[in-house]
Amino acid sequence: MELIQLTSDYEMKPFDCGDAALNGFLCNDAKLFSVNRLAKTYLLCENGQIAGYFSLLNDKLSRQEVANNDWRKIKKLFPHAKHFSSYPAVKIGRFAVSLPYRGRGWGSEQMDIVKQYLRQDPGYSQFRFLTVDAYLTAVPFYERNGFKKLTPTKEQGDTQAMYFDILSVLEP
Predict the structure, then answer these.
(1) What is the mean pLDDT of the chain?
(2) Is the Cβ–Cβ distance between 89 and 7 less than 8 Å?
(3) If I label 22, which of 15, 79, 139, 153 is the partner at 20 to 30 A Cα–Cα?
């Protein structure tokens, strides 16, 4: 499997994960998001096919957006002197696996690649958490991959806010 950062000159190959919004993002929006510095998209390719993709963007876990009981759990991860009103995070904006690769563990393998990639020290910025607004149908997948639910202070509709502590990933 090969990890490729999507660039503006990449010749897009067909992709279908069964979700029109996720397919549309990759085919129509991902390059524009990159050019406008909103999100970077990475492709996982095998034998010239796009097996899956994910997009990453900056985020934060904020006291104002998380219920009190969840915020207490997050604060416990830090020494008292380092309690802030928000903590830096990277958000998974999009995450999809192509239909032919589903049901074979590719989603969890792709999630492990995301975590290992982010666990490496890029040297330019730091963050503690990986976040996602998971489709409700995908919540069990994220829980199996170590994410915890956050109770938002306002209704989120058809998604569930979740987080993962990147320090729980062992050094590569």
Answers:
(1) 91
(2) no
(3) 153
Q: What is the pLDDT of residue 1?
A: 84
Alpha carbon distance 120, 127 (integer Å): 11
Phi-psi region of 47 (alpha: psi -120 to 50; beta: other; left: phi over 0): left
Q: What is the residue whose two structure tokens read 């503006």?
A: 8
Helix (H, G, I), strand (E, B) or coil at 6: coil
- Give residue 22's region: left, alpha or beta (phi > 0; psi -120 to 50): alpha
**Cα–Cα distance measured from residue 172 to residue 110, given in angstroms and rounded to the nearest whole number:** 15
pTM: 0.90
Q: Tell me the two tokens of residue 22.
A: 């996720």
CA dihedral over 45, 51, 55, 61, signed as positive or negative = negative
| Paired sense of beta strands 86-97 and 129-135, if any | parallel
| Positions in the chain whose pLDDT score sits under 70 | 121-124, 153-155, 170-172
* Total number of residues shown for the chain: 172
